[in-house]
TrEMBL record:
It comes from Streptomyces siamensis. The lineage of its organism: Bacteria, Bacillati, Actinomycetota, Actinomycetes, Kitasatosporales. Keywords: Calcium, Glycosidase, Hydrolase, Repeat, Signal. It comes from the Bacteria. Residues 1-24 form the signal peptide. Its EC number is 3.2.1.21. This is beta-glucosidase.
Length: 1007
């Protein structure tokens, strides 16, 4: 039984009898209309995952007001859907079918129709249908519109052939970009903007019979068929039908080789003929066209042989296939030549248009006509956050990217694409991948070797899906925890960030780039150059953002010491690409004021490429050049001349390439600058081995999410846990204890992994595979009872564990003041209060930044900063139950109040809740001996300084730190906090004796 039929109740069938009779009179084979919405109350006002109608808009005022209204003039039934609207941005309403039930099959019908009460406004009203995907909010959108140029009721009929694919829809982007009609999830109406209005709608239904040209289609096995010179290309032509029924009328396909850049009878033997699929042919039947190429023994670029297909009786392919004779004999194709010679040869052959294409990166969902990859010679594609294939599996990723890569073979020089993703804590767009702790947690580990291993696991999983480029790591130095991106930073101390840059070697391998062609390495991206972690609160001009994309005001010395230092380290480590920041930089005293980083030639050309000697390429951030002042030509001209080599222009790749070409022809961008940009890009493509191996090597796909990879993530989660308080040695827990677990983040993998997980913003709930903290505690063998809101009785337990904190966010959406703060939710506070009043308690904060918990600190026996630990809750359980010791240290200062922000190590006035570097330990004996022991450790540290021995110096400082922490206890004062924090900075910079001296100062201040 078709899913659409399930909507039709017995009463509804009775009401439709007249329609069915009318249909029968019109033609015995014409199907009866199938209702989608009658608006009699059979479909509720509700949203996903339920079946229902709901409104939406760009802000709180934009969603329309809806009602089911009884009308005597209702075209169908007794009620109609009515609404009023006054929309400034965008707004409308949707009917999504129930996500828990199968999608609907609309393929037997010609189109969709509905009654609309016209107001004669002349405005266009968009009507969309939802095809494919997991449910109505994760589907393709196919759109058309009608004009409200009439008055009174009118039935609007829209054949399915009128709908076009909507390219700008995120987060899903494209699925297969084919209106299949067999998996439909509903419809949506977008109402006019800028006018107050009312509307009425009734009787949405499917009508008519789909003719064979809609149900049957002719396809080819590929749009591009590369073949070596002298070989034969086999082009398979198939006929297919919706629902796989045999065709009921003959289908003919006339074919002819015509046009292209190859010469008939010289480069290939011309072909012409007709293929006939008789009536009754089974769906999926194929025939093959053979195109034989000829050898002429000269070195040549690739040459194309289009096959013109003329189809009768079915829908023709969206584009005709073409055979491509591979480029051959040219120096740039010789892998034995040095990369610089290959690059120079290739650049010397390229046209301005081809060079402009290499400098262009588009979002994969925007390339609805995949022939644009060759037509515009695109150099790169990316998946934005949440832009994934369906199904979201490793095989689907590889197939999708290979399909894009195939298109490049139809260009003269067959330059492969470089595909990029934001894999910022594992291959985080891919369901089932290994999700690492976010960088803030990696910084807490103080373990450079482990950071490198997390990068290696990420690189392996990313490359196994056909992706050679990762927009990571973020080398921002976070200076204000109100920033929504603060969890993307390793910490507030540039020395800590620099120490964690071992992750670059995890991604890329050796600094000289010689490992980049391995099947487990990817090109890394140092971002965001420079100063994005220092933006002032309230300085952002992007929408409702407060801090993100704002202005960083610094002296030249502060810029060099804090924000630039990590990028110098990244260049030394051979990082392949650098991404500038959305933010502006205001260097005090330089006379320029605040200038967007994408326009700062002094920093990109001057400092990064000049002084630091960066030899990779610079990629813009998402649509970032659109934030520059002036018109679009100015955006392009300014950014390219500032030193950007490739532009991430997700949906405007055509405008960008055209403008870049115009600016170059006018002399406003020099040929030398363009050649430099293209050379840098091609250098990395050659290093990655893409010319020899453009397609996915999926040999490592079996390791994605493997036990071995998850073991690394588990260790990282464990080492990232920072024990801030542990009165009476409550931790580690004992398996014999009865433990009461509560809190919003105890059993939520989505909250635990945070933003940039499966989608850009992330989301709560079971969004991917992994173990929650609660799962981990149970698997550790603990005697655990769980009550999320602490509503279950609390008597009879030895200890409580309350896991609280944040829900996911990303970028400026998470800025404090933009709907977010640093306070626990009311529900989390209530859970803490109830559990901690009833028993000894441990509070874990799962969050991207410190939470303000000072007012509950006294009632909390133990406090753990869990950060965003990723998919491996087992790692958190490992330290809770003593399988591993707590070793993490604060990567940022933990404030007492929001009014203290920004607060950072090195500040003159420094009075935190917990200082930078703080982190208690378990299972480790704290040194005894007090001042005498500190004096002895100072001697060891001094000797280590002289010998330059980290192996001796670091343990000495660590022992001193543990001793001093025990002395300070829970009474942290400015006199103890400041030298304590300074000591950790000195340790990271290799000043061991000075670090111990600062710790001695803190010890003495503790009294």
């Amino acid at each position: 039984m078709r899913r659409t039929a399930l909507l039709v109740s017995a009463a509804l069938l009775t009401g439709l009898l007249p329609l069915a009779s009318a249909s029968a009179a019109a033609g015995a084979d014409e199907p009866a209309p199938v209702p989608v919405d009658r608006f009699e109350g059979e479909v509720p006002f509700a949203g996903q995952p339920a079946d229902g109608i709901f409104t939406w808009g760009s802000d709180s005022d934009d969603p329309p007001r809806l009602a089911l209204t009884a009308r005597t003039d209702a075209p169908e039934g007794d009620k109609v859907l009515t609404g009023s609207y006054d929309i400034s941005g965008y707004g409308g309403f949707t009917h999504d079918f129930a996500a828990a039930l199968p999608a609907h099959d609309w393929s037997a019908h010609k189109g969709i129709r509905f009654w609309w009460e016209g107001r004669g406004s002349g405005k266009k009203i968009s009507f969309e249908i939802k095809d494919g995907g997991a449910h109505g909010e994760a589907s393709e959108l196919w759109t058309t519109s009608f004009a409200d140029d009439f008055t009174g009721w009118k039935q609007i009929e829209i054949p399915f052939t009128d709908f076009t694919y909507r390219t700008d829809y995120q987060p899903v982007g494209g699925i297969d970009q084919v209106l299949g009609l067999t998996q439909m999830w509903g419809y949506a109406v977008t109402l006019p903007v800028g006018v107050k209005g009312e509307f009425a709608m009734d009787g949405v239904e499917l009508y008519g019979k789909a003719d064979q040209s809609l149900r049957a289609s002719v396809t080819t096995d590929a749009a591009v068929h590369p073949v070596k010179e002298g070989g034969t290309a086999d082009v398979r032509v198939s006929v297919a039908t919706t629902g796989s029924a045999p065709i009921d009328e003959p289908v003919t396909v006339a074919y002819e080789s015509t046009g292209g850049t190859a010469d008939p009878d010289k480069d290939y033997t011309p072909v012409r003929g007709t293929i006939t699929f008789p009536a009754g042919t089974v769906s999926g039947t194929s025939r093959t066209i053979h195109v034989r190429t000829l050898k002429d023994r000269s070195a040549e670029p690739a040459e194309t042989i289009p096959l013109k297909l003329t189809v009768t009786g079915a829908k023709a392919p969206a584009e005709s296939p073409q055979v491509v004779v591979d480029a051959h004999g040219l120096p740039y194709l010789d892998p034995k030549l040095p990369v610089r010679k290959r690059v120079a040869d290739l650049v010397s052959r390229m046209s301005l248009e081809e060079k402009a294409g290499q400098m262009t990166q588009a979002e994969r969902g925007a390339v609805t006509a995949q022939g644009d990859i060759a037509a515009y010679d695109l150099g790169s594609l990316l998946s934005g956050g949440g832009s994934t294939p369906t199904p979201n599996t490793p095989a689907a990723w590889a197939k999708m990217i290979d399909g894009f890569q195939l298109r490049t073979q139809a260009t003269r020089f067959q330059i492969p694409l470089i595909y990029g993703v934001d894999a910022v804590h594992g291959h985080n767009n891919l369901v089932g991948s290994t999700i690492m702790p976010h960088n803030i947690g990696i910084g807490a580990t103080r373990d450079p070797e482990l950071a490198e291993r997390t990068g290696a696991v990420t690189a392996s999983e990313v490359r196994a899906t056909g992706i050679p480029w990762d927009f990571a790591p973020c080398l921002c130095v976070t200076r204000d925890e109100r920033w929504g991106r603060s969890y993307e930073s390793f910490g507030e101390d540039p020395a800590l960030v620099q120490s964690m840059e071992t992750v670059i070697q995890g991604f890329q391998g050796r600094a000289n780039g010689s490992d980049l062609d391995r099947d487990d390495k990817v090109l890394a991206t140092a971002k965001h150059f420079v100063g994005d972690g220092g933006t002032e609160y309230g300085s952002s001009t992007t929408g409702t953002y407060k801090t993100d994309q704002g202005v960083t005001k610094v002296t030249r010395q502060q810029l060099e010491a804090v924000h630039l230092a990590p990028f110098g380290t990244a260049v030394d480590r051979g990082v392949g690409t650098v991404m500038p920041s959305y933010s502006s930089l205001d260097i005090l005293g330089d006379g320029q004021g605040a200038v967007k980083m994408h326009a700062r030639a002094d920093m990109i050309n001057g400092v990064l490429k000049g002084r630091m000697g960066f030899d990779g390429f610079v990629i813009s951030d998402w649509n970032a050049i659109d934030q520059l002042p002036g018109d679009y030509a100015s955006h392009v001209r300014t950014s390219v001349n500032a030193g950007l080599d490739m532009m991430m222009v997700p949906y405007s790749y055509k405008d960008f390439t055209a403008t870049l070409i115009d600016e170059a022809k006018a002399g406003r961008i020099s040929g030398k600058r363009i050649d430099d940009a293209v050379s840098r890009i091609l250098t990395q493509k050659f290093r990655l081995g893409l010319f020899e191996h453009p397609y996915a090597d999926t040999g490592g796909a079996a390791d994605i999410g493997s036990a071995q990879h998850r073991a690394v993530a588990r260790q990282a989660a464990a080492e990232s846990q920072v024990l801030l308080k542990n009165d009476g040695g409550l931790l580690p827990l004992k398996k014999s204890q009865k433990v009461y677990v509560a809190g919003s983040n105890a059993d939520d993998i989505g909250n635990q992994t945070g933003g940039w997980t499966i989608t850009w913003q992330g989301s709560s709930g079971k969004i991917t595979d992994g173990t929650t903290i609660l799962d981990g505690m149970r698997r550790a063998g603990g005697d655990v009872t769980y009550s999320k809101d602490a509503s279950a009785p609390t008597a009879g337990y030895d200890v409580g564990v309350v896991v609280v904190g944040e829900t996911p966010y990303a970028e400026g959406v998470g800025d404090v003041g933009n709907g977010n703060d640093l306070e626990l939710t009311a529900a989390d506070k209530a859970a803490v209060d109830k559990v901690c009043a009833a028993m000894k308690c441990v509070v874990l904060t799962v969050s991207g930044r410190p939470q303000l918990i000072g007012d509950r600190l006294a009632e909390t026996d133990a406090l753990v900063a869990s950060w965003l630990p990723g998919t491996e809750g087992d790692g958190v359980a490992d330290v809770l139950y003593g399988k591993r010791s707590f070793t993490g240290q604060l990567p940022v200062t933990w404030p007492k109040s929001e009014s203290q922000l920004p607060i950072n190590v090195g500040d003159t006035a420094y009075d935190p809740q917990f200082p930078y570097g703080w982190g208690l330990t378990t299972l480790t004996k704290v040194p005894a001996g007090g001042s005498a022991t500190l004096r002895a450790l100072a001697l060891v540290a001094t000797a280590a300084d002289r010998a330059g021995s980290a192996a001796a110096g670091r343990p000495a400082v660590t022992k001193a730190r543990l001793l001093v922490q025990q002395r300070i206890g829970t009474t942290i004062t400015p006199a103890t906090a400041k030298p304590f924090a300074d000591a950790d900075h000195l340790l990271l910079t290799g000043h061991y004796a000075s670090a111990v001296a600062k710790l001695k100062e803190a010890y003495e201040a503790a009294g």
